[in-house]
Amino acid sequence: MSSKYLLSFSLLALLALPLAAGAASTRHQSISRTPTVSIGASPTSVAAGKAVQLSWSSSRASSCVAKGAWSGRKALSGTQSVSPTATSTYTLTCTGSGRSASKSVTVAVIAAGQPGPVLPLPTTPTTTPTTTQPTSGFKLGQVPFAPSSSWNTRVSSAASYSKLNWPAPTGYNYSVSWNAYSPAVYVSSPSDSWVQVSHPAGWGYPAGTVSVRMPAAANGASGTDGELLVVDGSTVHNFWQFKRTSATTATASSYGATNILTGSGWGTKSPFLSAGIVAAGSSQMAGLLVQAETDAGEIRHALQLTLDFPLAKTGFVGEAISGDGGSASGIVQEGQRLAIPSGTPMPSGLSPLGQKVFRALQNYGAFPIDVAGGTSNVRAQANAYDSQTMTSLWHDMGKITPLLQKVSM
After folding, report:
1. Is there a domain that residue 151 lies in?
2. 51: in domain
3. The pLDDT value given to residue 322
4. Full residue range of the structural domain in which residue 233 is found
5. Phi and psi dihedrals of 161, rounded to 5?
6. Can you give the pLDDT at residue 77?
7. Cα gap 148→152, rounded to integer Å
8. Mutual orientation of helices 352-363 and 387-400 as an angle, nearest 10°?
């Protein structure tokens, strides 16, 4: 269900070098070997002892094992009825080709006479309205989420830093995700058509259909993740494996949403509810490089980072509500703030965008929010920028990323 950002943006296709072509082929193979997991519960809150239906699916996996409030080997997809007597978290880990992925769903048990949790589901209507509603006025280029969000908070001048054992740059292991393997971003207008998007249960959301105004051009990215971000009103909708089925209908394999003006950009742990579809449960809009912002000036927020599988330590910390890290020898967990220590000199030869990224990582830092195969990436808006700018940033990241250290505020 979380996105696995395994290619940098078809960067290697931009280079007419045999070495690059070989690397692209190898990295493409790693995409096809990576398992994906989705798990949901219906309902997500019940009285003690009442039945809950768990449903799950996986792809590119050969075995699945249940952990947490359930246990044992499970089919690669299926359903199971459970009757929790206390709030319980059900985790499913699926393995294939030597790699694994885990996802969890939490069921809240409500005591007699106690109201159930109110889930902050998106406020867009479930049916097409008959009158036009005004949008929030959010524009690409303004900083998303509340000023108090950790994404928008500068690294403290009193912060301490711990060095990380980053691998030496190879030319391909530090990069930027763009184009096929990052989300396009669209801001809807009152004149846009309503699109009914059906999605399965997961990330705290019940299976159902969400109605979102979106431009006719909005569609999932061409990569296997099919990512899409649509800002409609004050809600930023995050879709994984989004596919149009008609001008007014679509499907997505995973869904999450949050308020782009007042939200934190992170999901909530209790009740368990994601803000997006990445492994940490954060919104894909949080920490994304957006051209309207970088063209206008400096980057005024932390950046999101996807970690190469071997670097992602098991578990998650901070405001992350989940994680896909599973490496016993990993160097950092998802949700941990990283930053370049103040006073570190800027590497020479950086592109204009690379210089802005360096300064953002010094001032605001970065949060690992997912894992990848063969590369660690910052991420950029898919339907913006150009190949030359992204190629330059790709090369810049080999100089910049290894400078990141673990931050203690």
Report:
1. yes
2. no
3. 95
4. 11-33+137-408
5. -125, 145
6. 83
7. 7
8. 40
Structure tokens, 149: 């969000």
In terms of Cα–Cα distance, which of 132, 272, 242 is closest to 190? Answer: 132
pLDDT below 50 — which residues of the chain? 1-32, 112-135
Closest CA to 306 of 379, 380, 356: 379
- Three-state DSSP at 24 gives helix
pTM: 0.70
Give the start-end residues of each E strand in 235-302. 235-240, 243-244, 249-251, 254-259, 268-269, 272-273
The pLDDT assigned to 118 comes to 37
Helices (H) and strands (E) counted in the chain, each on its own, are 5, 27
Q: Which amino acid is at 5?
A: Y
CB 162 within 8 A of CB 404: no
Q: How many residues does the chain have?
A: 409
The helix (run of H) or strand (run of E) holding residue 394 is helix 387-400
Neighbours of 335 (CB within 10 A): 24
Cβ-contact 31, 41 below 8 angstroms: no
Residue 57 lies in a domain: no
Tokens 């509500």 belong to 321
Tally of domains within the chain? 1
Q: Establish if 264 belongs to a structural domain.
A: yes
Tell whether omega for the bond before 125 is within 30 degrees of 0, i.e. cis. no
Please provide residue 306's backbone torsions phi and psi, each rounded to the nearest 5 degrees. Answer: -105, 135
Q: Which two tokens stand for residue 344?
A: 């570190």
Instruction: Evaluate whether 360 touches 301 at the Cβ level (below 8 Å).
Output: yes
Q: Which two tokens stand for residue 401?
A: 């990323």
User: Which amino acid type is present at position 180?
Assistant: A
Give the pLDDT score at 90.
87
Task: Specify whether the CB–CB gap between 195 and 250 falls below 8 A.
Answer: yes
Residue appearing with tokens 């985790």: 91
DSSP string, 5-23: --SSSSHHHH---HHHHHH
CA dihedral sign, ordered 104, 241, 265, 260:
negative
